[in-house]
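Contributing new records

If you add data, match the layout below exactly. Sequence lines come first and carry their own label; structure lines follow with theirs. Keep one chain per record. Anything else will be rejected by the validation script.
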Amino acid sequence: MFGKKKQTPQIDKEQLELIKNAERRIKQKKRLYIHFVIFLIGAVLLIVANTVLGIGKDIKFFGLEWFVYAVILWLIIFIYHFISVFITNKFMGKDWEDQQREALVAKQQARIEKLRQEFIEKETKIAKEQASDEIAKTVTNQKKKHELTIIAAAGENNAIGKDNDLIWHLRDDLKRFKTLTNGHYIIMGRKTFESFKKPLPNRTHVVITRQDDYKVPEGVILVNNLEDALDASRFDRQPFIIGGGEIYRQSIGLANKIELTRVHHSFYEADTFFPEIDEFNWRETNSRYHPKDENNEYAFTFLTYERK
């Protein structure tokens, strides 16, 4: 009364396509078979018509009867039909087209993937270059804000001490040391720290030692190497390296400035020395001479060097 509900096919599109393709192939083969039968019958009739009935018996081309050419032409048409059904259709039919399409898609996908990889590599390279530029800018800015300074007093022969103590007493040098380092981080080796009776006031002490169980007062930072010491003092605009000899040697290639008190005397009994200042890397920017007096047993000069 209301009509039947339209049935939904139970065969999916891919299966239906395969069935249609099979039916099409069967029709092609049937046509080829009919063509073959007609070709055989027609060839026989042409031969009978010429040889038995004498039709066109006198017609020859290049010494051959006309029906020979007719049979050859028909054979060529049949061969073409055969090739079209069994060869061309097999290698260049729908399956062949699908294969070519899939191969083309695969090539395009490979090309897209290659372009994607090249794009990623290019973007990565650009990102690395940008990161390097940012790091360089950051380092440059940090260098401008962070000035590592070596402060020391050394004789004419670069002597700085003996038996973990100073060889001289220069009151004005001690005042200058206090003024410059006040409020800053001061980085030193263990022996230099032990030369103090107690930590210096209003300064943050960073002590370098290889002894894992070394005890220090509260507020003193203990590290194992110069790199960690510099990291510990990174928030100070101008941390100071204050000794001893080995720490000076390790840090002179990293420092931005040297505040040196040159004591005008050679101390051959010394056992600790300040490294040579290479004038190729350093330039003297300030100099102030101080004569010997009742508070300073040797004449000396306050020198400031900055890295070129």
